Amino acid sequence: MSETLEVGGLTFAVRRSQRRKTLGLVVDRGAALVVQAPQDTGSDELARWVQSRLLWVHRKLALKAQLAPNAREPEFVTGESFGYLGRTYRLVITAGQDRPLRFDRQRFHLRADARPCATDHFRSWYVSVGRPWVDKRVAFLAPRAGVVPTRITIGDLGYRWGSCSRDGLISLNWRLLQLPVRLADYVIAHELAHLVEPHHGPAFLRVLDRSMPDWGARKEELTRKAREVYWCSAGMAQ
Ligand SMILES: [Zn+2]
């Protein structure tokens, strides 16, 4: 029978090994929890060690639940749909065109020989259309929040939708361009509110309530919609 460990309402499989010298913790692809331990680690010590890492575990699990099953990856084949601000557009693989990727408001056209780097082409496309679009939304949303951001960038933030630095720089994930406008707006409004308060405390919530009274519903919808977003993690730079 395999050894398990219960900590904080979670069950961990314990894998002991003669060769291991240190303790390790893995949340595997299927969100199963595995503790790796040297052969002779006592179960109390093991439990204490796992306890000290529960916050990390919960964070990992939350991330998996939100993103892992939905970390959809495109195959870049004709007929596949790509989201752009709430609408979906079909992809056509084509032989003759100058640019590797073209969008004509009806379809995306990807040149066949550009398929191996398709992720990069799509990412650059979303970033380039995203920049002016995001500026417009910020111009609309920032006054509602009563803030003035110093700078907005759009790029690869891994699994985060957005971030806000101490000096007022807001970074947004290019993947949000695949979302409907109201949800991308929520991500922007959320980061703008962080200009007032870096944590999710009362001051932060007051700003968000004022600038976007229905933010709660949008936040929930975002969790669902995130499953439809192409994550393109193969080319993910963090
Ligand atoms: Zn936040």
How is this structure best described in words?
- The protein has helices at residues 43-51, 54-67, 118-145, 181-193, 202-211, 215-225; strands at 4-7, 10-17, 24-27, 33-38, 81-84, 87-94, 101-103, 107-111, 151-155, 162-164, 169-173.
- It has 238 residues and is of the alpha/beta class.
- It folds into two domains: 4-70, no CATH class; 81-235, Metalloproteases ("zincins"), catalytic domain (Zincin-like, 2-Layer Sandwich).
- The strands form three sheets. It has a four-stranded mixed beta sheet, covered by helices on one side. A four-stranded mixed beta sheet has the order 5-6-8-7, covered by helices on one side.
- α3 (118-145) crosses α5, α4 (181-193) packs antiparallel against α5 (202-211) and α4 crosses α6.
- The protein is flat and about 65 Å long.
- The relative contact order is 0.11.
- The structure holds zinc ion.
